Predict the structure.
Amino acid sequence: MRGTFRLSSELQLEADAVIIGSGAGGASVADVLTASGLSVVMLEEGKHVPSSSASPVASEAFAAAWRSGGLTAAFGQPPIAYAEGRCVGGGTEINSAIAQRADNYLIDQWRKVYKIENFTPDELTQYYQRAVATVNASLTPGPVGRATDILRQGGDVLGWEVSELKRGQRGCKGANRCAFVCPSGAKQSMAVTLLPKAIDRGMRLFAQTRVAKIRLVNGRATEVIARSWDVAGQGRSIRVKAGMVFVCAGAIHTPAILRRSGLRERIGNTLRVHPTIKATALFDEPVDAHRSRLPLTAVTEFMPEQRIGGSVFTPALFGLSLAGDWINRGDLMQHWRFCGSYYGMIRPRGVGAVRPLPGINEPLVRFTLAPEDWIALGQILTRLGQVMFAAGARKVFPNIFGHEGWTSPDQVHEFWDNPLPKRQTNLMTVHLFSSCPPGEHRDVCAVDSYGRVRGVENLFVADGSLIPEAPGVNPQMTIMALAFRVAEAALSHSVKERAQSAATDRR
C-alpha cells in the first residue's frame, strides 16, 4: 500500500491524532479526521498483505493475516474458538464482507438500558448509510452456486424467511478466498477503501507496530508507546504524542491496551460474542461449494436471537474442520464435493472478560455461557438440521465430538429438550464486541455515549468494543457507523476545547 511506513530507527512523532488499529473502526475514524485536515498517525500490529501477494494456501494465509494463525480461544466450558484479523485492514481483510445493520428494536433497547444519548435508529441512519456507501454494499449478481441454493431451498420447504445477503464488493470474481485476503481487491475491505484515502490525505501508517500502553497525565492521554519490527525482525521503539488518541484494536485488544495503561473501571468486563455451532451436511448430488462464493443467503426467520448461515468452504478448510474428530469424520473427506458447511449462531445472555497478562502478548479471554444460551444452542442446532434435511441432505453431522450424525429429520430434535454435551460440543465465533459499552449508565458503561473513556479528556474507543450487546448480525456496518459517530463527536469536542483554551489565553 502506497504510504505505508516501516521503521528503521527509533522514532518520536507528533500528530493531531493517533489511531491504534486499522480495521473497520480505525479506518472509519481515519476517514473522518483526515477529511477534516488533521494530521494522523495510525499504528497497526499486523503486516500489510496486498491482494497481489495474498496466498491461496490456507496455512500461509492464516499465518499472514489472522491473529495467532487462527488459533485463539476464549476459556470456558467449553472453550470458544474465535478469529481476529491481524493485518492492515484488520478483520475486514478476512471476513465475508456481509453488510447488515443492527435491528432497530435492539438499538432502542440499548439506548434505554445503557442510557446512550442521541442513539436511535433514525439518528444512526446517516452513519449506517455512510458505511454502506463506503463498501458498496450490494447483492451479488448472477448464479451464486448450490451452497447458497441449499439454504434457500430448505427455508422455502419449511416456510421460513430466507434473506439474500448484501456484501461489500465491486466486481467480485467468486474466488471463494474471502478468509484468505481477497486476491482481486474486489472485496471492499479497509485496505481497499478508506485507508488509501486517508494515506492520500497525509496519514502516516506504521505496520508491524504493537502498542504497549498509553501514557496518561492529569486526566489526558499524552503519548502512545509502541514497538515496531523491521524486515529483519529487529525491534525499534516508537512514541507518538497527539492531541487525541483513538483505541480501535478490537473487542479483545482494546480493553487489554486500556488496562495495561492503568484504566480498569468497567473495561473488559462485558465481552460478548455470537456463540456459533457448525454442522456438515452430506448430499447425494455434488455441492461443489469450493467453486462458488460462501452461501449468500441466511435463514432470518428467528432473528435477531438466532440465525442460520453458511461458511466459506475449501478442501483445506473442510479437512481442518474434520481434523478435530478425524476418527469419526475422516471418511467424509473422500466425499468433500458432496458436502456443505453451515452454522447456527445465537445472541447470548452470558458474558466474558478480557485481562492482559504480564509478559504475554495475548490477553486472557474468558466467556461463560448462560443456561439459556445452552437452550438456544440446542434450538438453533435442531433448526439447522431441519433446514439441511429439507434441502435434501442425506446425513447431517453436528459439530459435537463423537456424534455419529443424523440420517433423518426425525433425529434432529435430539437436543431440543435435552442439553448439548458441554465437553463434546465445539463452538466458535468470528464476531466479538461489547467489552467497552457506551452510555451514561456509569455502573456498567466503560465510556460515555460518544466513546470517550471516563476520566480521560482526549481518549476514545471506536471499534466493536462499543456495540453494547451482541447484535445478532455481522457487525462490520455497526462498527463503522459507531466509529464515524465517535470521530465526529471527538472533533466537535476538540474544537470546543481549543476555543475554551484560546479564550483563557486572551484573559
Remarks:
- The two ends are 48 Å apart (CA to CA).
- Residues 1-49+92-136+188-266+435-507 form a domain with the FAD/NAD(P)-binding domain fold (CATH 3.50.50.60).
- The mean pLDDT is 93.
- Residues 356 and 362 are 7 Å apart (CA to CA).
